Amino acid sequence: MEKFPSDFVWGYATASYQIEGAANEGGRGPSIWDTFCKVPGNIRDGSNGDIATDSYHRYKEDVALLKSYGVRAYRFSLSWSRIIPLGGRQDPVNQEGVAFYRSLIEELLKNDITPYVTLYHWDLPQGLHDRYGGWLNKEEIVQDYVNYAKICFTAFGDLVQNWITHNEPWCVSCLGYQKGVFAPGHKSNTEPWIVAHNLILAHAFTVKLYRDDFKAVQKGQIGITLDFHWPIPYDETPENVEAVKRATDFKLGEFADPIYKGYYPARVKAVIGDRLPEFTAEELAVVKGSSDFFGFNTYTSQIIQDGGDDETNGYVKVGHTRADGTQLGTEAHCSWLQSYPPGFRSLLNYLWKTYEKPIYVTENGFAVKNENVLPLEGVVLDTDRIDYFDGYANAMLQAVVEDGVPVKGYFGWSLLDNFEWADGYETRFGVTYVDYKTQKRTPKQSSQFLKKVCVAHPVFVPLDPHTFISLQWFPEHIAA
Ligand code: PNW
């Protein structure tokens, strides 16, 4: 009989643009997402983050929710343009923005909740994009990012000991600069590789700054969060097996290999050629080893086939339908997500074997189709989300206990329903239902399920790895 280690960190995650609102308040400057949302057609329901879940004003209520859910950690991101409205190293700091985040952090600590702070979750100051092309301009953006990080370490580092530089750089470079479905909406076959390169450098020089100037006193850890979904070959043909390796190198290795091993993957170089920038020897010395842990977000597994025209995925076709026509799992309210817990266990094992760093799952969650508060009972019965968390928590427990993978923490996405980027407000990932007209928050059943998981550190019941019986930990739920 085994259980999660007693120091295992349970928390929830959010991101500034998705929850804060108050876009034109408190001295905040615009970000590229404010601009992107204004272009008709970019956001499915035509919405934006102007109000979102109004967490700029309601942060105390949100912290009370975290407390009531029994978690001891909260991962949130800072809005760069709330701290430096124009973004640059010569631009003024907005003390009101600094004070806001200090209040939030103090409120968390008062409630015994440890902050995990992401510096960059996609909301680049518009000022930097306008001034010099933002992430495209290596000389400028690396210095401005490091300056921004320095202001944050100085302002909050006495209270914060867990720092994450970027959230999901693949989404920034590929969805923002190749596919054009995220801000700033560029479609290019050269820009994503430049942006990826500059994101890595900004991350690495920030980590160097923290280690050189802050770590000795503040005693924190710092790393990056990548995103990856476990890839499964469509069949055992050599092309599809090779396609899985290529997909892994393009999506994960493109960032993880330089940061943890010191080089770009050979498969990426072979395809991208001289469109992939090179690191100088001095840069590489800073990049290699620039993350104290392996932070990653994962939601699903994918069936991979050779072919297609999507360069950022490494020319593979991505789906959820097996060769025999069956589906991997339950589909979420977004087509890219199906539940498949065994893939999560495999992924945790793969990351540990490949990169040999302690792991934080910094996001994991599920969007249930067409959710509502039941009018009579006043509750949200999100059974599919409970099944999802049940399966994924079990898979993680197996990875930790049976396979010996050092997973240190797990953050559910998300504390609240929120602005789901190009999907707008239709797609709900929260364990708390938000009525966007009134901003009323209603805990969903899944929040109570995860509360039992994290408060009880439940005893592990070994399962067949391909059978994740719903709710096996808490039989009383089965009756409900
Ligand atoms: C992550 N995809 O983004 C982000 O870190 C969160 O801000 C976001 O709300 C969450 O996952 C849910 O989507 C992703 O298209 C965005 O594969 C898109 C994809 C994956 C993750």
UniProtKB/TrEMBL annotation:
Gene3D superfamilies in the cross-refs: Glycosidases (3.20.20.80)
Residues at which substrate binds: 18, 121, 167, 299, 413, 420-421
Active-site residues, record numbering mapped to chain: 168 (proton donor), 363 (nucleophile)
Catalytic activity entry: Hydrolysis of terminal, non-reducing beta-D-glucosyl residues with release of beta-D-glucose
PROSITE patterns per record: GLYCOSYL_HYDROL_F1_1, GLYCOSYL_HYDROL_F1_2
EC identifiers of the protein: 3.2.1.21
MF GO annotations: cellobiose glucosidase activity
Pfam (any one): Glyco_hydro_1
The entry's keywords: Carbohydrate metabolism, Cellulose degradation, Glycosidase, Hydrolase, Polysaccharide degradation
GO biological process: cellulose catabolic process
Known function: Plays an important role in cellulose degradation. Shows hydrolytic activity against several glycosidic compounds.
Family membership: Belongs to the glycosyl hydrolase 1 family.
This protein's name: Beta-glucosidase
